[in-house]
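Changelog entry: the Pyridine nucleotide-disulfide oxidoreductase record was regenerated in this release. Current contents:
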Amino acid sequence: MNDALIIVGAGHAGGRAALTLREEGYSGRLILIGDEAHLPYERPPLSKGLLQGSIDLAGCSLCDEARLAELDIEHIAGNPVRQLDPAQQRLQLADGQWLAYAGLLLATGGRARRLPQAQANVLYLRTHDEALALKAALRPGARLVVIGGGFIGLEVAATARGLGCDVTLLEAGPRLAGRVLPPVISEALLDVHRLHGVEVRLNVALESIDADAVVLVDGQRLPCDLVVVGIGMQPNIELAAAAGLDVGQGIRVDAHLRTSAPNVYAAGDVCEFRLDGQYQRQETWRNAEAQGRHAALNLLGRELAFESLPGFWSDQYDWGLQTVGVSTALTVSRPLPTGGLLLFYLDAEHHLQGACGWAPGNSVAKDIKLCERLISARIPLNPTSLADPDLSLKQLLRG
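Regenerated structure tokens:
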């Protein structure tokens, strides 16, 4: 019987799973298959350090070629998987070769969602190569239109302003990052971007993208040299769906990250798992890291339920945004001495369920870590105490 473990998807989640398997003592054949030519790398630096030129691919990578060779991890690039055959526990590569597996991890991620009005001056940002193409175009004085007021669009806008570009950001909704942030943080984001010279337009509808301008439905024409589209990610579920696996907005898994096919797991951006009874995906560094490790352990037979708290961060100019846990209707706000704020999300019994922090630099990180401990501790909290900036979270943690 073939004892090979195969990982399809050589991004952050897939790469972390491969490294974890070796760290945990797996010594059998281990194959990592990726669509990109590059070694596994982390995506957050693409919209910041890599565009700015302060970091290169090596600085984003989880490991180098020497480390892969040392760990005897077979990295297949440029020969993607054509089809899965779960009944026979095998898969076929584009060159026709079949590979059998004892366990399989699908960490296929996704690709940038495309606009139908595509033109030559339209760029996207999902991969390292797309980041390099965008970096080359971000010249001082370049007129840039960013379509999409989510985190990719906002981070590109901030980086482009720092590089001397003229930036207009278009958002179809009434506020920035409206699907994931409360109104008060959306407003803070709007203020900081406008303060740094970004022309932000909300509630706009796109008519077309011409070679030298973006045209809005109301007839306004926005001249530009370049358009960056950040309107979300399209999960790569086609391979799983064609093989008959259960899919929704991603590849659906149980509490152990196991798919509907025997010995097949999923992790990362493409993984759709239950949180509070609802299926969801999480496109975050934290999720890719946690699920990559977790899926590796379960490939080794650990049978561990996945229970990691969600969370993400984003850098906007010299301000930092961090979240942990989930939001609820009962929200308590605490002003911070730095001018930022902390939001606490409580359940009906006043247990902390989540928190969101906005502050200069990385100053909110300690508070968010303490909030994570408060969530785990399940201590009933006094909303008045939470709102008091003079009462430390450490005191609340001590009860």
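The longest helix spans residues 285-299.
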